[in-house]
Amino acid sequence: MKEEEKRKDQKESRELENYGQMTLEGSRKHRKIHLLSIIGEVEGHENLSGSSKTTKYDHVLPQLAQLEDDDSVDGLLVLLNTSGGDVDAGLAIAEMIASLSMPAVSLVLGGSHSIGVPLAVSADYSFIVPTGTVMVHPVRMNGTVIGAAQTYEYFDMIQDRILSFISGHARIAYDQVKRLMLNTEMLTRDLGTVLVGEEAVRRGLIDEVGGISDAVRKLYGLIDGRRKRT
Q1: 211-214 contacts, C-beta under 8 A, 24 or more apart
Q2: How many CA atoms lie within 13 A of 28 on its CB side?
Q3: What's the mean pLDDT in 136-153?
Q4: CA torsion through residues 1, 68, 72, 212, sign
Q5: Strand intervals (E) in the chain
Q6: What is the pLDDT of residue 51?
């Protein structure tokens, strides 16, 4: 029976690694961290082409729920290098991360664009590497768009959800995020703002410039602080 359980655990571990997830448990102070990688495009209800790098929300959500139910895991480390993707899927993952009872730290590597911004700020503390970027821009929609007042109201409602989440989880006001989103001076023939490294921190979207060692150290500190309180 033990051999069967061991093989099952090994199989589940390999499957998680295929989805960019794994558990780090080599800490000398016996802290167990779950690693979640959000890369490529966040995939929603429709499957993207097989050649695209994607993060599938229907894989991520059950894993986050399982993490919340696993008393052996002490914290979550989220690595981001995403171009954005499906709004509802991205916000669903962001809300799950934000509602975890365990500490969570995010690290923006190459970039965290569009719906990647709520994902970056959903953690308790966020880092960005010096060359990392965040991009805030209005919601875009594929396919046929009906030119009616209700359509624009729907777009506004979606954008309000994004703006409210970002301002509620970062050190930036709603109106300031909206100005970044509707900026007409930076992107040629488009709206929005790209912020690099330190500028993203200065604007209040990200907490600190740093790398993987900084993110892990911060997460250890949050875990230790939680242990002292309990």
Answers
A1: 211/107, 211/127, 211/129, 212/107, 214/127
A2: 1
A3: 66
A4: positive
A5: 21-24, 33-43, 54-56, 75-85, 104-113, 125-128, 133-136, 193-196, 208-209
A6: 65
Residue 78 contacts residue 125 (beta carbons within 8 Å): no
Q: Which residues are catalytic?
A: 114, 137
- Token couple for 72: 């052996």
What's the whole-model pTM score? Answer: 0.84
pLDDT attached to residue 144: 52
Of 65, 42, 161, 162, which Cα lies nearest the Cα of 111?
Answer: 42
What Cα–Cα distance (Å) separates residue 18 from each residue in 11, 15, 179? 11, 5, 38
Contact indicator for 22, 67 with CB cutoff of 8 Å: no
pLDDT tens for residues 41-89? 998 877 666 667 888 888 999 999 999 999 999 999 999 999 999 999 9
Distance of alpha carbon 84 from alpha carbon 30, whole angstroms: 34
Task: Give the other-Cβ count within 10 Å of 29's Cβ.
Answer: 9
Query: Strands 133-136, 21-24: parallel, antiparallel or unpaired by DSSP?
Result: unpaired
